């Protein structure tokens, strides 16, 4: 007849067999000494380190990616000191020098007086899950970028222009600095499309976008496709003279490109018309009024014969 001690020993052996047959890696740390009193044999399959090489939490922390170490160790220690169960994700170093994503699920064991006695937990390999999450995150970022990008030219679209201009307007208000805006219209583009076809028209707009992008050379200068054959350049901290120089550069570079436009009544090559305005905005000023003023200037340049700048 088995004794109670034999029964307990058998139960313990059953539990250990169950634990060591799972993919999760069980472990136990003595809180007073911060040493491993147990770690499952699965650790060798996952990370390659021998079981007897896991002596203390120093071995655990040293086998962690340097970028994760401080954050994870500080979090786990503080939670353990507070007696709180917790989880932590980090990259663990393998014996071959690679990294595997691990999730540690930690449970606090207490003694009769309620003090923390030991930490027990499981390590889970979550590499595949992390890779999937990172892939989804990249896809979300790509979709977000696409939502702000003009599909044809690759530059910013109207939505991005609206957000960026509003941000620069607020910055100019706060810093009491000038903000310049240039609106660009490709002259007689309907006639260009009618003569050369829409495919060639699309190619022309791409070329115009590339040229204009090169003219707005400073890091905070911003170009977007406003719609159709219209483009806009936002020039933060640029006064009227600087804005006019950029506009002239745009017009000259488009002319130098010598893009044929046989249907134009202005020039045998492609030309552009522009409206340019500069403002140091105050709290009383309206961004919409500013944009409408530049739009009127663009209309004025077209009414006056095109291939010119109105400012």
From TrEMBL:
GO terms for molecular function: diguanylate cyclase activity. CDD domains: GGDEF, PAS. It comes from Nitrincola lacisaponensis. One of its GO terms (biological process) is cell adhesion involved in single-species biofilm formation. It is an enzyme of class 2 (transferase). Its cofactor is Mg(2+). It catalyses: 2 GTP = 3',3'-c-di-GMP + 2 diphosphate. This is diguanylate cyclase. One of its GO terms (cellular component) is plasma membrane. Residues 177-311 form the GGDEF domain. Residues 11-84 form the PAS domain. Residues 86-138 form the PAC domain. SMART domains: GGDEF, PAC, PAS.
């Amino acid at each position: 007849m088995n004794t109670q001690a034999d029964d307990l020993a058998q139960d313990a052996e059953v539990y250990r067999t169950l634990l060591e047959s799972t993919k999760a890696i069980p472990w136990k740390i003595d809180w007073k000494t911060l040493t491993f009193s147990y770690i499952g044999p699965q650790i060798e399959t996952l990370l390659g380190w021998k079981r007897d090489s896991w002596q203390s939490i120093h071995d655990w922390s040293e086998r962690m990616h340097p970028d994760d170490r401080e954050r994870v160790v500080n979090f786990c220690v503080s939670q353990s000191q507070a007696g709180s169960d917790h989880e932590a994700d980090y990259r663990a170093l393998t014996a071959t020098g690679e990294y595997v994503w691990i999730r540690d699920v930690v449970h606090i064991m207490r003694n009769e007086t309620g003090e923390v006695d030991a930490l027990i937990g499981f390590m889970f390999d979550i590499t595949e899950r992390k890779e999937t999450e990172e892939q989804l995150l990249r896809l979300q970022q790509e979709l977000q970028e696409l939502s702000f990008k003009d599909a044809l030219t690759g530059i910013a679209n109207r939505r991005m222009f609206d957000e960026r201009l509003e941000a620069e307007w607020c910055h100019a208000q706060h810093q009491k600095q000038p903000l310049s805006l240039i609106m660009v219209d490709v002259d007689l583009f309907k006639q260009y499309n009618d003569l050369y076809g829409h495919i060639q028209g699309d190619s022309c707009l791409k070329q115009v976008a590339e040229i204009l992008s090169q003219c707005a050379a400073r890091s905070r200068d911003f170009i977007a496709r406003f719609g159709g054959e219209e483009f806009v350049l936002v020039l933060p901290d640029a006064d009227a003279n600087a804005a006019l120089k950029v506009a002239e550069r745009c017009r000259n570079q488009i002319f130098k490109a010598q893009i044929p436009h046989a249907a134009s009544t202005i020039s045998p090559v492609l030309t552009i018309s522009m409206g340019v305005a500069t403002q140091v905005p105050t709290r009383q000023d309206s961004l919409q009024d500013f944009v409408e003023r530049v739009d009127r200037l663009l209309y004025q340049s077209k009414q006056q014969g095109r291939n010119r700048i109105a400012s």
